[in-house]
Amino acid sequence: MSQNTSIRLRVNYTGRVQGVGFRATTKDLAQGRDVSGWVRNDADGGVTLEVQGSVAETKAVLDAVRTTLRRNIATESSIEIPLVPDEPPGVRIAR
Q1: What separation in angstroms does the CA of 80 have from each of 34, 43, 52, 53?
Q2: Neighbours of 50 (CB within 10 A)
Q3: 10 a catalytic residue
Q4: For residue 9, what are the β-bridge partners?
Q5: What is the rounded CA–CA span in Å between residue 20 and residue 1?
Q6: Which residue is catalytic, options 41, 66, 72, 95?
Q7: pLDDT tens digits for 69-91?
Q8: Among the listed residues 8, 23, 18, the one whose alpha carbon sits nearest the alpha carbon of residue 83
Q9: In this structure, are residues 53 and 3 in contact, taking their beta carbons and an 8 Å threshold?
Q10: DSSP string, the chain
Q11: Is there a catalytic annotation at residue 23?
């Protein structure tokens, strides 16, 4: 897969990921990247991130989240999902 191919990933994080600024930090880490999507707290205590962009940009965001928040993440799982056309740029915090 080319690094310029667009993808969308749904990533689920568990661990100490709520009440620690995880969503705001994830949003900040995505700033300046050519990605779109959202991040939200889940009822089960986890956090879900959907991020869309080129393979390279998406990977850069996920790597930054892993590096910056590694002490909070117990598990991370991701699946590729369909692209969302015309989604506004940036990662927003969803409720």
Answers
A1: 18, 22, 10, 12
A2: 19
A3: no
A4: 51, 80
A5: 35
A6: 41
A7: 999 999 999 999 999 999 999 99
A8: 8
A9: no
A10: --TTSEEEEEEEEEES-SSSSHHHHHHHHHTTSSEEEEEEE-TTS-EEEEEEEEHHHHHHHHHHHHHHHTTTEEEEEEEEE---TTPPSEEEE--
A11: yes
Residue 51's CB: how many other CB atoms inside 10 A? 25
> pTM (2 decimals)?
0.94
Q: Among 88, 89, 12, 92, which Cα is nearest to 57's?
A: 89
Give the model confidence (pLDDT) of 43-60 as tens digits.
Answer: 999 999 999 999 999 999
Give bridge partners of residue 80 from the DSSP assignment: 9
pLDDT at 1: 62
Which of 8, 23, 33, 72 is flagged as catalytic?
23
